[in-house]
Design goal:
Strand content of chain A: 25-35%
Number of strands of chain B: 5
Structural class of chain B: alpha+beta
Order of helices and strands of chain B: HHHHEEHEEEHHH
Distance between the termini of chain A: 20 Å
Helix content of chain A: under 10%
GO biological process, one term (chain B): negative regulation of translation
Strand order of the largest sheet of chain B: 1-2-5-4-3
Oligomer: heterodimer
Strand order of the largest sheet of chain A: 1-2-3-4-7
Radius of gyration of chain B: 23 Å
Radius of gyration of chain A: 13 Å
Structural class of chain A: mainly beta
Protein name (chain B): Protein Iojap-related, mitochondrial
Number of strands of chain A: 9
Strand content of chain B: 15-25%
Low-confidence stretches of chain B: 1-13, 17-37
Pfam family, one (chain B): RsfS
Shape of chain A: globular
Helix content of chain B: 40-55%
Subcellular location (chain B): Mitochondrion
Family (chain B): Belongs to the Iojap/RsfS family.
Largest interface: A-B, 33 and 42 residues
């Protein structure tokens, strides 16, 4: 359940550390929440120095982990310990080269196979 | 940058027993669980198409049972390089054409999932047990996919690094004051 003003961790090595969501893509009237697999527009609140991405840059990201439990088709519920996103560009390619943490298999069906194939562990 | 150890994701959360079944079923039952994959395209056919279309530097990584993800993701990862955006898109088109040809005459044609077709820098064709990545030259250098799938035992190596890093060190007294106790 990610909404505007939510702080998220960044699960890749693109240089950003913390993001704040400012818009959920596809939401109606800014009222809908974002779940795993949704694309959000976010601003970088904290970044590692000397990387291509800097603080207060507006970028797009796809959510890969949420604290709110997420029900899969086969009845399994997955709940992570934090909210995290992977930064992508306009075309859907990830900006970083490596992804950290476990990624849910459901991202594959939502056309994010690139992120799933970069992941160290797929749930 | 550390990997999953420092991420805090699901830290201390152990998969409950019923989740193991999901992991096990996706590991052991790869072939029966995804019957379409074996029919969509075989590895040999993929390699032939890629050599026909003159894709550069074709590499196959077996990431099945013993490899990364524990076999949950796919059986094989095929990576190919295209000389330009147009070439990358052409590689994808050739593979899709081959898949269509193979299934000619049947009532339903199962097509794989294609991502990144419009952009052209990185096109992924996901046919279940074989995932084919077609990248442009610079994108391939940037993402460096070989190093992800070459090291298979990455969870084990990170545990070993942790053991060696937690070594008891002797406190060195660099100040002028004498030590009060050893």
């Amino acid at each position: 359940m990610i909404q505007p003003q939510t702080l998220l961790n960044v699960a890749d090595n693109s240089g950003a550390q913390k993001l704040m969501c400012i818009r959920v893509i596809g939401a109606a009237g800014n009222q809908r929440y974002a779940r795993i697999g949704d694309v959000i527009v976010a601003v970088i609140k904290d970044a590692v120095p000397q990387m291509p991405l800097e603080r207060s840059e507006v970028i797009r990201a796809v959510i890969v982990r949420t604290c709110k439990e997420f029900k899969c088709e086969d009845g399994i519920t997955i709940r992570y310990d934090d909210n995290a996103a992977v930064i992508i560009d306009q075309k859907g390619n990830p900006k970083g080269t490596r992804v950290f943490g476990a990624i849910a298999e459901e991202l594959r069906e939502l056309n994010f196979t690139k992120i799933v194939s970069l992941a160290p562990e797929v749930l | 940058m550390l990997s999953a150890v420092g991420s805090g994701a699901a830290g201390g959360w152990r998969p409950p027993p019923h989740l193991f079944q999901r992991l096990l079923s996706s590991c052991s039952g790869v072939l029966p669980a995804r019957p379409q994959a074996a029919e969509l395209l075989e590895l040999a056919e993929v390699e032939k198409v890629l050599s026909d279309v003159r894709a550069g530097d074709v590499r196959v990584f077996p990431v099945g049972e013993g490899g990364l993800h524990g076999g949950a993701c796919a059986d094989y990862m095929v990576v190919a390089t295209g000389r330009s955006d147009w070439h990358v898109r052409n590689i994808a088109q050739a593979l899709l054409y081959k898949i269509k040809q193979k299934q000619k005459g049947s009532d339903r044609i199962l097509m794989p999932r294609v991502e990144g077709q419009q952009a052209g820098k990185w096109v992924v064709i996901d046919s279940g047990s074989i995932i084919i990545h077609a990248l442009e030259e610079r994108a391939r250098e940037y993402y460096d996919l070989e190093s992800i799938w070459s090291k298979e035992v990455s969870p084990n190596t990170s545990a070993r690094e942790l053991e060696t890093s937690l070594v008891k060190t002797r406190h060195r007294n660099l100040s002028q004051k004498p030590m009060k106790s050893i």
